[in-house]
Amino acid sequence: MHRRTLLAGIAASGLASAARADEPKVFMNYTQKELDDAYTQLVYAPNQKQVQARYAENSAALAQRIGPPKTLQYGSKPNERILYYPARRPNAPLFVFIHGGAWHFAKAEDYMYPAEIFLNQGIGYAAISFDGVDEMDGHLEPIVDQICRAIRFTRQNTAKMGVDPQRLTLGGHSSGGHFAGVALTTDWQTLYGISPRIFRNALILSGMYDMRGPRLSVRSSYVKFTDENENSLSAQRHIDRLVTPLILMTGTLETPEFQRQSRDFAAAVTAAGKRAELRTGRDYNHFEMCETLGNPYAIGGRAALELCKS
């Protein structure tokens, strides 16, 4: 490279850095674009579509091998269903999973692929079906209600499902991890008439626990955030209601915000004198973390089995 070209490149780089330094910060040390990117998974996980296709393909292959999951209706709407594979023995533990999808897409049928590793260990597997935010006119609160009603239904129908009511484990990933955190910090007695001690433990992968960052990001283009629901939908602000021990997970190839959210929530829970362990999946991105639930030797599957057997 000629010296003049090299100097021009250095100068351009310096100008770009200066421009970057002059951009306003909208949250923590993020510019608007950086914050939007930190809540847009495709920017950090270019294989998103391929991995999500494997979720669906492996779930369909499982149904071909062992039959389709059973279905229970917890409400009157078509999506208000629980899909589950009962354990092959009575009075078994149950892993209850809340899937992700950026709050507005994905379906529970595509998240049945982990079931086999649980069934092989005498554990049942259930996935909650619910509507997306697009069907709720941009509101997340009705989805939280769906999920909480599904959880209450499961707790009240453990005998019908062949489940030990004292051995329920909650799982969630991404926006499903967000919903899991909200469910675990819900005022169950007041709102749903049952004790908050529903789950023996919980495993949340790549979740979100404070809505300030998402509210300021591109996600506000399809979610209707307000001051009130920013607070009510932030599990980290309601740790006083948390009674369930947690394992939180994040991958090293996740967006910086998804890594920070898990670190901050784990720190806040432990600072409050409650149990939360943070585990890190090296060289996994956001979608690959969820895929590990289907592998008993990978970080997600190993932890889920550990909790169900505890």
Structure description:
This protein has 310 residues and is an alpha/beta fold. The chain has one domain: Rossmann fold (3-Layer(aba) Sandwich). It has helices at residues 3-22, 32-38, 41-44, 48-66, 115-119, 141-156, 158-161, 175-184, 188-192, 212-216, 227-232, 256-271, 286-291, 299-309; strands at residues 70-73, 81-85, 92-98, 124-128, 163-173, 201-205, 246-251, 276-281. It has an eight-stranded mixed β-sheet, sandwiched between helices. The termini are far apart.
Provide a short characterization of the protein structure:
With 310 residues, this protein is an alpha/beta fold. It has helices at 3-22, 32-38, 41-44, 48-66, 115-119, 141-156, 158-161, 175-184, 188-192, 212-216, 227-232, 256-271, 286-291, 299-309; strands spanning 70-73, 81-85, 92-98, 124-128, 163-173, 201-205, 246-251, 276-281.
